[in-house]
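quick q for whoever's on today - can somebody do inverse folding on this one?? i tried earlier but teh output was garbage lol. C-alpha cells:
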C-alpha cells in the first residue's frame, strides 16, 4: 500500500432515502469518512441496528482513519476498533463473520505497519532536523569566520551623506546578513518541526534547541538592526535638514541632490532596517523628491524667462565677434590678435549666456584666430628645422676638429716642435670659431694639453740629440728644465682640482666618468714629464761633469 496516496473513492450507490438524508454509508465503504469526525460517526453508529452493518460501518471508518488521510488518526482508529470488537459476538452468518473478522484483523495489522513506517519517518526527520540544528550551532560558534565570508554591500563613493559611517554600515550589514541567514534557517526548521509527525517529547526537545538558538540569534540581530536604523535615520535627517529644510533650492546642483536621494533610497532597500526607520526615511526622501520636482519646475521657469535675455546678449556679442574676425583678416601680428582675443574672452565672462551660446561664440573666435596660429606654428617649425641643421653642421665641425687633434697627437712622433706649434695654433683658431658644450670643452682641453706635451717632448728630444760641443746646450737644457718643472706644477694643480671635483656629490654619472678619465690622463702626463725632467737633469749633470 502506498501511504503517500489516498485510496480512490468509489461513486456511492445510495438508496433514495439515504440520498435524501445525505448520510454516509460507512458499512459499504462507498463514501469514506475523510471529512467526518469521530463524533459524527458515533451518532451514525448508534443509529444502526443490525450488528453486521455496525461492523461494516466501523471497518469502513477505521479504514478511512489510516488510508484516507495524509496523517493517519490512530487514536480514532483504536477507539472504533475497541467499539467494534463486541459486535463479533452477536448473531452473524458464518461467512459474514469470517469475512468481516479477516478485514478487521488485516486493518489492525495494516495500522501497526503504518505506525511503524511513520515512526521510522519521524525518527529520520528528527535526526535530520537535529543535524541541521547542530550545523546552525556550529555556525553560531564560528560567527566571526562566517561574517568574514559574507560579501560586503556596495555603498557608492559618490554617496557623500553616508561617507562618515561607510565602514560602520558595511560591517554591521555583513553581520546582519549572517544573522538573517541563520534566522531564516531557524524559522524554516521550526516550520518543519511543526508540520512533521513525531512524538510530542521529540518535538519538545527540538523546540527547546530551536529556542536556545533563537536566544543567541535574535537579540544580536535586533541590536544590529537598531544600530543601523538609528544611524541611517540620523544621516537622512541631517541630509534633509542641510539641503531641504528651508524649502529653497540648494546652492549646489539639483542633479547631484537628485542622485544623492536616489542613492539613499537604494541603500535603504539594501540595509536591514526596522519598520519605523524604513517608513521614516522613506517619507523624508519622498518629500525630498517632491521639493526637487518643485525646484526643477521653478528653474525651468527661470530659464524660459532668461532665454530671451540670453538671445539678446548673444546677438549683441556676435557683432563684437564679427569685428574681431574682420580685425584678424586685416592684421598680420599674432600678438595683437592674442591681445584682442583675451579682451573678448574677459568681456564674454561678464555676459549672461547659456553654455551652448557661450561655446558657439568661443568657437567662432578660435576659428578667426586659427590662421594666425597656423602661420606662427609653421614659422616655429621652420626655425626648429634651421636650428637642427645648424646643430648638425656644428657637430660635424666638432667631430672633424676632434679627429684631426687625435690624429696629430698619435702621429706626432717625427714632427718638429715648430710644426706642432704651428698646427696647434691652427687648431686653436678653429676651436675658437666653434660653439662647444661643456663636455666638448673638457674634451678639447684634454686634447690640447696632450698636444702641448707632444711639443715639449719634441723640444726635449731635439736638445738631447745635439753634439756635446755646443756651448749653449747647457742653457737650453736649463731653460727647458724650468719650463717642464712649471708644467709639472701645473699638472699637479690640475690633478688636485679634478680629485676635489670627483670627491664631491654634485657630479652626475657621465661627468664623473669624464673627470676620472681626465685624472688618468693627467697622471700619465705627470709620469712622462717627471721622467723627462730626470733625463734632462742627468744630461745637465754630465755637461757640468
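ok took a stab at it. sequence:
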Amino acid at each position: 500500500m502506498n501511504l503517500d496516496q489516498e485510496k480512490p473513492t468509489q461513486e456511492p450507490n445510495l438508496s433514495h432515502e439515504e440520498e435524501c438524508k445525505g448520510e454516509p454509508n460507512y458499512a459499504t465503504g462507498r463514501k469514506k469518512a475523510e471529512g467526518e469526525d469521530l463524533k459524527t460517526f458515533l451518532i451514525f453508529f448508534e443509529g444502526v441496528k443490525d450488528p453486521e452493518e455496525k461492523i461494516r460501518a466501523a471497518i469502513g471508518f477505521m479504514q478511512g482513519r489510516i488510508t484516507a488521510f495524509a496523517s493517519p488518526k490512530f487514536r480514532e482508529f483504536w477507539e472504533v476498533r475497541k467499539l467494534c470488537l463486541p459486535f463479533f459476538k452477536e448473531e452473524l452468518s458464518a461467512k459474514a463473520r469470517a469475512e468481516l473478522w479477516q478485514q478487521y484483523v488485516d486493518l489492525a495489522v495494516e495500522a501497526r505497519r503504518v505506525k511503524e513506517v511513520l515512526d521510522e519517518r519521524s525518527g529520520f526527520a528528527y535526526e535530520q532536523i537535529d543535524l541541521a540544528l547542530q550545523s546552525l550551532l556550529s555556525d553560531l560558534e564560528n560567527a566571526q569566520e562566517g561574517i568574514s565570508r559574507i560579501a560586503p554591500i556596495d555603498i557608492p563613493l559618490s554617496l557623500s551623506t553616508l561617507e562618515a559611517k561607510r565602514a560602520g554600515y558595511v560591517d554591521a550589514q555583513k553581520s546582519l546578513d549572517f544573522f538573517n541567514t541563520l534566522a531564516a534557517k531557524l524559522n524554516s526548521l521550526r516550520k518543519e518541526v511543526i508540520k512533521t509527525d513525531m512524538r510530542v517529547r521529540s518535538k519538545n526537545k527540538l523546540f527547546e534547541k530551536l529556542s536556545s538558538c533563537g536566544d543567541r540569534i535574535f537579540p544580536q540581530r535586533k541590536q544590529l538592526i537598531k544600530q543601523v536604523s538609528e544611524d541611517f535615520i540620523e544621516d537622512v535627517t541631517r541630509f534633509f535638514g542641510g539641503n531641504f529644510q528651508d524649502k529653497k533650492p540648494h546652492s549646489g546642483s539639483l542633479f547631484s541632490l537628485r542622485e544623492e536621494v536616489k542613492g539613499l533610497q537604494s541603500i535603504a532597500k539594501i540595509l536591514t532596517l526596522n519598520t519605523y526607520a524604513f517608513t521614516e526615511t522613506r517619507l523624508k526622501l519622498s518629500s525630498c523628491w517632491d521639493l526637487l520636482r518643485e525646484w526643477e519646475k521653478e528653474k525651468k521657469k527661470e530659464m524660459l524667462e532668461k532665454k530671451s535675455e540670453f538671445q539678446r546678449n548673444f546677438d549683441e556679442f556676435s557683432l563684437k565677434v564679427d569685428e574681431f574676425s574682420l580685425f584678424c583678416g586685416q592684421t598680420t601680428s599674432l600678438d595683437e590678435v592674442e591681445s584682442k582675443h583675451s579682451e573678448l574672452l574677459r568681456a564674454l565672462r561678464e555676459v549672461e549666456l547659456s553654455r551652448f551660446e557661450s561655446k558657439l561664440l568661443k568657437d567662432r573666435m578660435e576659428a578667426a584666430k586659427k590662421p594666425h596660429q597656423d602661420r606662427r606654428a609653421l614659422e616655429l617649425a621652420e626655425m626648429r628645422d634651421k636650428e637642427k641643421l645648424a646643430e648638425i653642421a656644428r657637430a660635424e665641425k666638432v667631430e672633424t676638429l676632434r679627429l684631426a687633434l687625435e690624429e696629430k697627437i698619435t702621429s706626432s712622433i717625427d714632427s718638429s716642435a715648430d710644426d706642432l706649434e704651428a698646427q696647434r695654433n691652427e687648431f686653436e683658431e678653429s676651436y675658437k670659431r666653434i660653439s662647444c658644450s661643456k663636455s666638448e670643452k673638457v674634451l678639447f682641453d684634454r686634447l690640447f694639453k696632450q698636444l702641448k706635451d707632444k711639443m715639449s717632448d719634441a723640444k726635449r728630444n731635439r736638445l738631447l740629440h745635439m753634439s756635446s760641443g755646443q756651448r749653449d746646450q747647457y742653457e737650453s737644457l736649463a731653460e727647458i728644465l724650468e719650463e717642464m718643472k712649471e708644467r709639472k706644477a701645473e699638472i699637479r694643480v690640475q690633478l688636485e682640482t679634478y680629485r676635489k671635483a670627483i670627491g664631491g656629490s654634485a657630479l652626475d654619472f657621465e661627468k664623473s666618468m669624464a673627470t676620472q678619465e681626465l685624472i688618468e690622463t693627467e697622471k700619465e702626463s705627470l709620469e712622462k714629464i717627471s721622467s723627462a725632467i730626470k733625463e734632462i737633469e742627468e744630461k745637465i749633470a754630465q755637461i757640468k761633469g
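fwiw The two ends are 148 Å apart (CA to CA). also Residues 1-35 have pLDDT under 50 and may be disordered. so keep that in mind when u check it
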